[in-house]
Each structure stands twice: as C-alpha cells, then as structure tokens.
Amino acid sequence: MLDLKESGGSHPFSLIADFEGDIRELFKQEYPETMPLLPLRNMNLFPGVVAPVVVGRESSLRLIKQAASTGGFFAVGCQKDPADDDPTLKSMWEVGVVARVMREIEMPNGNRSVILQTHGRVRLVEQTQRRPFMRVRIEPLTEVIPAEGDKEYAALVDAVKDQTVQLLKISDTLPDDAIFAIKNISHPVFLVNFICTNLPFSQEEKQRLLQTGDQKERATSLLGILNREIQYATLKRNIREQTREDLDKQQKEYFLQQQIRNIQHELGDTPSDDAKSLREKAKQKHMDERAQAAFEKEVQKLERLSAQSPDYSVQLNYLETLVGLPWGEMTEDTLDIRKAQETLDRDHYGLEKVKERILEHLSILRLREGKRAPILCLYGPPGVGKTSLGRSIADALGRRYVRVSLGGIHDEAEIRGHRRTYIGAMPGRIIKSMQKAGTDNPVFILDEIDKVADSNHNGDPQSALLEVLDPEQNKAFHDNFLDLDYDLSHVFFIATANSLGSIPRPLLDRMELIAVEGYLTEEKTEIAKRHLLRKIQREIGTDKRLPLNFSKKSLEFLIEKYTRESGVRQLEKQLERIYGKMAYRVAMGEQTEDKKISITPKVVEELLGKPPYNRDIYQGNRYAGVVTGLAWTAVGGEILFIETSLSRSKTPKLTLTGNLGDVMKESAILALEYVKSHASTLGLDYRVFDHWSVHIHVPEGATPKDGPSAGITIATSIASAFTQRKVRKNTAMTGEITLRGKVLPVGGIKEKILAAKRAGITDIILSDDNRKDIDEINAKYLDGLTFHFVESVDDVLRIALLDEKVSNALNIDVPQDEPKND
After folding, report:
1. What's this model's pTM, rounded to 2 decimal places?
2. Does the pLDDT value for residue 450 go beyond 90?
C-alpha cells in the first residue's frame, strides 16, 4: 500500500476511473527523444493508470507548472532511496512511464496535488539536464496486450481480481471502499496495472512487474505475489487474534482476581503475603518450564483460598516444598584425586582395596565433568566403616552429605511420597533429603538397603528404589506428592548393606558392588590408637584430666577377649566403659586426677571383669573325630569344631545335631558317602558301615550354622573317627567338597584367617583356588601361619590325619560272626 505521507499523494483509491475503449491507443503516442523527468519517492506508476501525486520539491513544481501550461508529455519514475531530496538518474529505477497532467490542485501547505494520466512505458537512458528540473533521454518500450477474447487471459485477470478482493478483506490497513473500487473495474489491462500501482508491494517487486512488457506475464507474476501476501496477511491476522485472546484472558483473570479480593475483604479475610513470598523464592530457583507452570497454577489457587480454609495450609505446604527444592543448584566438585586419597587415608585405616575402588570411581567422575554420578553399594559386616566412608567421599568431593536410613521401611510411600489427596500427605524421603541437602548433587547415603521390607499390602519399596538408583530413570524421578519429575542424575548415591542375599537382583544390577571386609586384630589395634581413643578423649574431654595410656598388648587383649565382631563398634564401647570406670574411680577418690595411668591387660580385666569370649581356643588333638573348621559370620570369622561319634547299631544311620542348615546337612551326607566309597584307601573294611551309626555334632547348638565351607572338615572328622587316627596339631581347614572328592573354594578367607590366628592355629588347609585370596592379604598379617593348598579330599586326609592312632577303647572291628574281607 502506498504511504501517502512519504509520496505526498492523496489516497490512491480516491480517484478510480475505468477505461473505456481500446487502451492500446494510449500506448501508440509519439514521444520526443528527450523529456523532463518527475521523480517520485515511493510510487511506481503503471501504463494507463490515473493517479494523484503530491508535488513538493521546487524542481518538481517547476516541471508540473510547465507541463500543465503546455500540455506536453514528461517521464515519471521512482527513485530508489525515498530520503534522497535531490536525486539523479543513477538513483532512479531504470523503467518509468510517460504521463500528462489532467488536473492541478493548490494545497494549503504550499504543495501542489496533480492528477496524472499515464501512457506507455519508457526506459530512462541518459540524463541531459539537471536544472531547473531533470531532463532525460528516453527509449520507448512496447506493451504486449492479449487479444480480445483470450479466455486464458480473462481467467487469469478474474483470479487476480478475486485474490485482490480476498487480500483487501483480510488486511485491515486498506480502505473499506477499495473492495468496491476493484470489483467495478471492468477493463482487464487497467485492472492489472491499477492493482500493481496501488497495492502495498515492495518497490523492487513493482519495478520487476513494470519491466515486464507482456501483460499476461505481468498478471501471472502479480497473481503469485497476491497469493504470498494473502498467506502473510492470514498469519498476521491469526497472531493478532491470538494476542487479543491472551490479553482478553489476562484482563478477565485480573478482574476475577480483583473480585475475589473484594469478596475476601468483605468477609474479613486480609490478603496473605504468602503468595508474594513464594513468588520471590521461586524467582531465585532454576525451575524448568513445566515446574514453573505448575508452580504458578498452584500459587493462583492459593490466592483464591481463604486463609481460614483447611485447604490453605495444605496448598501452602505443597508450594513451600516446591520452592524448597534446589532445582539446579549444585556445588562445584573439587575433584583432586590426591586430596581425596589423603582424606580417605586420614579418616580410615586399612581398607586399601576399598579405597582404591572408590578413588577409581572418583577418577571416572572427574572425566565425566559433572555428568551422571556412579552408584556404589558398600557391603560388609557391621562396624567396618561403610557409612563413614560415604561421609569421607563427600568431604573429598566438597559436596553436601545427606543420609537416609532404609532399615525397616515397609511402605512404598516412604520412597515416592503420598498423593496430595490423602490427609497428612508429605513427600518421600528422597525428596525430603534433597530439600535438606540444598543442592542437586549431594553425596546421598542409602543406609541399610538390605533391611528394606519385601512387597506387601503397602506396595513394594524395593521396586520403588529401582527408579532412584537406575541412571536411565532417575533423570525424571516422580514423587507422588510433588506430581512433577525431578532430576536425580547428578546425585552421588552410596548404598550400604550387611549382606547382599536379601537385595533383589534387579536392584543389585544397578549398583557397583564394593566389599568392605572385616579388620584383623592388627588393624583394629591401629584404628583404636589413631581414631577411637582420640575420638573418645575429644568427646568426653579427658585428654588432660584423665590421661590413659593403652599399651599394644592391652588393646589386643581387649579386642580378642572382650569383642566378637568384624568392625570396631563394640571395641569403641568397651573403650568408653574403661574411661567410665576410671572416671568413676577419680570421682570416688580412688584415683588421682591428672596422673598418667597405664592400661595393661591386667587392668583391663580388673575394670571389665572376666573375658566373655574364650571359646575361640584350639582344643587340642587328643580325640579322634574332633576337627577344627573355619567359618564366616556377619560379625567376622570364627573357628568351629566338628565332632563325630560312632555307636554300634543293627540299623546304621546318620544323625546330625547342632542347629545345622540344609546346605551343611548335605555336606555331611556327601562327606559320609565319600568316606564309604574310599574305605579301602583309608584301610577300612567296607562292612564296618553296616554295623556302626554315625553321629555328627557341631557345638553351640543355639547358634544357627549353614553353608558348604565345612565340607572337608566333616569329611576329615568322619575319616578320623573310623580310622581312629588323630588330626594334626594346631590345624584348621575350610572348603566345599563334591561327590567326586574335589575341594572347591569358599569365601570369607580374610575373616577366617583372623579367627585362626586368635585361636592359635598354625596350619590352615584351603582349596588351591583360594590361593589368590591369600595373595591379596598383606604379608605381615600372615606371619606364623602355614597354608596347605589342596585339590581333593585325599590331599586333605593325607595332610590332616596322623599315623598315630588313639587307643582301641572304641572297638570298631567287624563282629566275629561276620567273615572278614580278604
């Protein structure tokens, strides 16, 4: 559309004239070789069009005055830069039209409006005069007009008219009478040129249309431009309507909110500042778009509620939980592996393999540059430092530390939260802990993960943990209370467990398992010196007022005689008891304060009483059928004794006592069958088994016992009882057996060695496949021990049984009425 302010013309649709007769007559005029040139700022005139033009420049006024007085022709062209007040031919478009002045009108501001009748097209070739107005040499151009009755051209013009009318209806920037004007133009050539002149196309496009001499080709190009402009106009109208709808909706909501406030004011409810405070907090968070939309929706609900309404506190609690979460706030990791190693060594003595595995994971985390953190599971007996390792990792990384105890959880809602429809609903422990941590990347300890209850009527909490610990799912952890997805992928999860047996397999597959084994006596002694004593003195404040000096022998005596564990928790309690006893003596005047006191084994026994644990002592080899075995328990390694007794019987049978599990019973059956099948190797008559019953007993019947590791111990005990050969002195053994007599490896070797050393064992029989476990143990802990690696039960019996027999008090010869085997 022509901008009249820039061009200086009156409204382009204000003068509309249809053409009657043959328009070709306009284009057959004879023009002089040179003629004046009227430059227009923002307007391209097309042949045959009547158009108003406002003239303001001095040179243009002179040109119009001369042309009006003589009635002569002059050229009209469009300048490329509308802001140019003194254009030359170089600043003009190449093609223009020839025109005559039809009418001249004086205007109040001194400008002059003229109505021009255009004729044919000309090319502006050369400028011949600059003052008082521009004069140029022209070259007439031919206008190709289709013949009358050309149906294709007629259809093309009708399409141009329809598209123009549609564009005028869509666009609200054009005058209302334009549609009427377009519909009433009947001459096709005049219609096309009139539309080209007046519709709001760019001057470049209008110049291309003007340079096209073929009227049919010009109409085709015009139709394409009209189609494009209709699409643009439709898109603009849709955007405008959507914007208007959004504004209307906002205005409506504003008035409704005002009405609610007025109603609340009438009811005596003063507006709360809670919503304003929550919005201020939300601005400081980095919520995603979905969370922001949900927050704004819930805040508006809060504003509509009365402060006295019961739902108000529920809604406020939800929003405070939402803005209390970190939402993208993270601490920067200090991934210095050397510093991390120093931190772990400072806080924990021993556990070299464990610390090495942890440092490997921290190194990988450093390479990932803060992306998905590993998920570790530290498993081992109580008191070995699994939870404190997690705190040391947090210190090494410079991250926040948060811990959740999962022991005894039986409700899935404890993990995923309750839906807000329930009374007293709250988020799960995971979201609560993230809120407590204040960052999106804390070190998160899931303590006692093996104590989580199985599936029940309250759901399956173990399955709920799958979403937390699965790196592919915890990017969008869904808490029922929040009802939004929360990203847990940056959290460093560390689970702890005493045993892996009760943890579902799918849950184990999502974690990196790291075994934290029990401590040897030497390690416990160092831990007591470096950590426990200092901790107790710091907490009780007795480092100066009650200085106690523990010798190495006193600590070893305390560890071996007063504790029965793999960790050091009970040791710490016994040390606290000693400090308590000495503090009592000082308070009663029996001991002088500030005097250094030496703690010896005798003093320990005097303070704590007789040692409660004395059973881990080797009982000698005076009796045939008694063999020392090694066992693993949740509190560390122990020695056990397998006793076999024979009794005459007409119906021989195997009796097992001592609270044995199914696996251990099967081991006893296997051992007896092996001895029977290898009777000749042991120098036995096979018929002895038909007259003697076998009774196998494992002392301490109140303690449940199970597992396959006592296989070779039971086999040796049975063989010793039948052959009446004693067992090698100070010898213990562990290993599983097969029906073929092969000895298989077992676990818990380190704990079993600890138990053997406590009991004074010097020789240990193991499967050859357990050699690798011995190689991983520090050599200083193996002093005084000799290991015998075997592959079969025959090897065990050859090493364990002595040739010396016990007296024949147990007459196990075959009865006289039975013939002896040759």
Report:
1. 0.58
2. no
Residue type, 709: S
In this structure, CATH architecture of domain 522-608: Orthogonal Bundle (1.10)
Task: Report domain extents, the chain.
Answer: 4-215, 272-324, 337-515, 522-608, 626-805
Helices (H), 336-425: 337-347, 352-368, 386-397, 413-416
What pLDDT, on the 0 to 100 scale, is given for residue 161? Answer: 87
**Is 752 noted as a catalytic residue in this protein?**
yes
Tell me how many degrees the CA angle 268-271-275 measures, rounded to the nearest 5: 155
Query: Which pLDDT score, from 0 to 100, does residue 4 have?
Result: 32
Are 657 and 781 a contacting pair, CB within 8 Å? no
Q: Which of 752, 757, 767, 792 is catalytic?
A: 752
Task: Give the span between the Cα atoms of 427 and 486, in whole angstroms.
Answer: 12
Rounded distance between C-alpha atoms, residue 515 and residue 229, angstroms: 73
In angstroms, the CA 131 to CA 134 distance is 6
Fold classification of 337-515 (topology level): Rossmann fold (3.40.50)
Closest CA to 754 of 573, 581, 601, 559: 559
What distance lies between CA 418 and its chain's CA centroid?
22
Identify the active-site residue in 60, 433, 566, 709.
709
Instruction: With cut-offs at 50, 70 and 90, classify the pLDDT of residue 668.
Output: very high
Is 408 in contact with 453 (CB distance < 8 Å)? Answer: yes
In three-state secondary structure terms, 685 is coil
What phi and psi, each to the nearest 5 degrees, are found at residue 603?
-65, -40
Task: Give the whole-angstrom CA distance, residue 125 versus residue 123.
Answer: 6
Active-site annotation holds for 709 = yes
The hierarchical CATH code for the domain 626-805 is: 3.30.230.10
Distance set, CA 492 to CA 495, 504, 785 (Å): 10, 21, 42
From the CB of residue 77, how many other CB atoms can be counted at a distance below 10 Å?
25
pLDDT at 60: 86
Over residues 137-192, the pLDDT tens digits come to 988 888 888 888 788 888 888 888 888 888 888 876 666 667 777 777 878 888 88
Q: How many CB atoms lie under 10 A from the CB of residue 771?
A: 12
Cα separation of 340 and 234, whole Å? 64
| Side chain identity at residue 439, one-letter code | T
Same fold: 337-515 with 522-608 = no
Structure tokens at 444: 């998160």
> Do the beta carbons of residue 582 and residue 546 sit within 8 Å?
yes
**609-633 pLDDT tens trace:** 888 876 556 666 778 889 999 987 7
Q: Please give, one letter per residue, the 3-state secondary structure of 94-159.
A: CEEEEEEEEEEEECCCCCEEEEEEEEEEEEEEEEEECCCCCEEEEEECCCECCCCCCHHHHHHHHH
Task: Measure the CA–CA gap between 371 and 359, rounded to whole angstroms.
Answer: 17
Q: Tell me if residue 798 falls in helix, strand or coil.
A: helix
Assigned architecture for domain 4-215: Roll (2.30)
* Residue 23 CB partners (closer than 8 Å, separation 6+): 48, 145, 187, 189, 190
**pLDDT tens digits, one per residue of 718-762:** 999 898 888 998 899 999 999 899 999 998 888 788 788 778 889
Quick one: DSSP state of residue 742?
B
Question: What's residue 543's pLDDT?
Answer: 55
